[in-house]
Amino acid sequence: MATKTDGYQCTECGWTSVRWVGRCGECQTWGSVAERGAPKLESVSASVPAHAAVPIGEVDIQAAQRTLTGIGELDRVLGGGLVPGAVVLLAGEPGVGKSTLLLEVAARWAQAGQTTLYVSGEESAAQVRLRAERTHAVADKLYLAAETDLGTVLGHIEQTAPSLLVVDSVQTIGTAEADGSPGGVTQVREVTGALVRVAKRRGMAVIIVGHVTKDGQVAGPRFLEHLVDVVLSFEGDRHSGFRMVRANKNRFGPADEVGCFEMGEHGIVEVPDPSGLFTSRHEEPAPGTCVTVTREGSRCMLAEVQSLVASVAADTPPRRVTHGVDGSRVAMILAVLQRRANFGLSRHDVYVSTVGGARILDPAADLALAIAIASAGLDEGCHRKVIALGEIGLAGDLRRVPGLEQRVGEAARLGFELALVPAGNRDPNNRLPRMHGLKVVEVATVAEALGALGLRRSRSSATRASVTEAEYPPA
């Protein structure tokens, strides 16, 4: 039966409500609404702890040793595997492949000899088995349960004693001890809290599937992300088989790593070297294209930016259409090109897109965006083996790029011949590699970068920017 409450009250202004809300309706303060009649801090008496506190140096670190999931790309994102007792939240859009990925994780875990419990609140056990047959994810120690009641799920945990629990999804599980319907704020909070408590008590790793809103945010209260240990987002384009798992929060490892996968007919497979997926092959230099190297955690990946510039009528406002890049960032680069490089496109439509459905958030791709737009405006292709790295400032200058040595090394490994980098970016103790014929050219401004590639509005009258090639000894 649901417990009776005296309502909820804001601790800041005294505003009352019959149900819990995350934000006060009167003073608009977040997290200040609490249950009325709840015990105050002054009335709570001290109790004898079940386990005495010990010095941190005497804590047994073996109890938190990671276990590999069997999927290298996911282990990379998790920081080396799953920690016993860790609770992981995996969120993504419908149809992106969350259930397929976690069924593969559960099967690999069970094939390694460890008991796994897969709880599905959205499909029947037969439907999950059908998908497992298609993706070859059948294992003897993989147990399936189709349940939507929290008490029944906890009973399955007591019976099977798994070392890994997968719940698909938290929005479908409910309990009669909390108000609201499954998927509501109160239900999600109570269900997640119960799973976290049982995970810590039993030392059992838990992976929870979460839904997302239309804005791509994790559905449910923000408290949900604070409660779990790891928050992963599963991203991908519906029209492309490429998928990326990105860590947004990780208490046990780096929170900026990504894992790359590809969805196929027989399930999901890892992509350990995704650089070639975001570039296209051109037999001849193509106008409006440029390649950059983005950095996701410790991984460097090549990404190609494409642009198209078309003139418009005098009475038609120009359009700015972007896909895979930030539209406001492109607008800023267009303004810098006009004011600092004498390259105005105010009477032209500008379209900017990435190859392979990549989503570029790295500011180091600014120079590649500027070169692609300028190349499209002149309808002239630059060298097809050129990469461009640099963040553009409002003064037209190029700012430092973190991890430049790793980025240039990745470009050299893939056969590029010329790299445009910001001037003064190199570390005296870390010299950029010069291998496989790659040349590194330092440029201080956007105008110098365009001049180095011959991308000028009026070549006859414009003075070619002086660009000095940085000579580096072999690494």
From TrEMBL:
Pfam family, one: Zn_ribbon_LapB
Domain RecA family profile, residue spans: 63-212
GO biological process: recombinational repair
Annotated spans, Lon-protease-like: 349-475
InterPro entries: AAA+_ATPase, DNA_repair_RadA, P-loop_NTPase, RecA_ATP-bd, Ribosomal_Su5_D2-typ_SF, Ribsml_uS5_D2-typ_fold_subgr, Rubredoxin_2
UniProt entry tagged with the keyword tRNA processing: no
Motif (RadA KNRFG motif): 249-253
A GO-annotated cellular component: cytosol
Keywords assigned: ATP-binding, DNA damage, DNA repair, DNA-binding, Hydrolase, Metal-binding, Nucleotide-binding, Stress response, Zinc, Zinc-finger
Source domain of life: Bacteria
Positions of ATP binding: G92, E93, P94, G95, V96, G97, K98, S99
Gene Ontology terms for molecular function: ATP binding; ATP-dependent DNA damage sensor activity; damaged DNA binding; hydrolase activity; zinc ion binding
Record flagged with keyword Hydrolase: yes
Family: Belongs to the RecA family. RadA subfamily.
Biological role: Plays a role in repairing double-strand DNA breaks, probably involving stabilizing or processing branched DNA or blocked replication forks.
Written domain comment of the UniProt record: The middle region has homology to RecA with ATPase motifs including the RadA KNRFG motif, while the C-terminus is homologous to Lon protease.
PANTHER family: DNA REPAIR PROTEIN RADA, DNA REPAIR PROTEIN RADA-LIKE PROTEIN
Full protein name: DNA repair protein RadA
